[in-house]
# Entry
Amino acid sequence: MPPKIPWSLLRMTFFTKKDCGLCSTASLNAASWKLAATGNKAQFKTVDIFEPGNEKWHDAYVFDVPVLHLESEQDPSKILKLMHRFTPEEIGAKALELGFGEPPPK
# Structure
């Protein structure tokens, strides 16, 4: 099995907006997964799509927040996305797809 990528190279970008109930739940799921799975080592950034300077993200996600991007610093061209409702398990599966973590034992 190839060595796993260090958690510190995992970038998580959470796209949100004010007064979004789904966003609150998704944010909690992302934060709890980051703490439990990575020991809080993954990078985490929150982007409010309505803040000035975030027009690109507003145009892309105005009807889709919450959105979570996961990417590796080693290959920033590959971004995996989760949208709307997502669980910590789904976040872990996407991280595994990028080469982070270990597959569950069989």
In short: The domain at 7-98 is CATH 3.40.30.10 (Glutaredoxin). The mean pLDDT is 92.
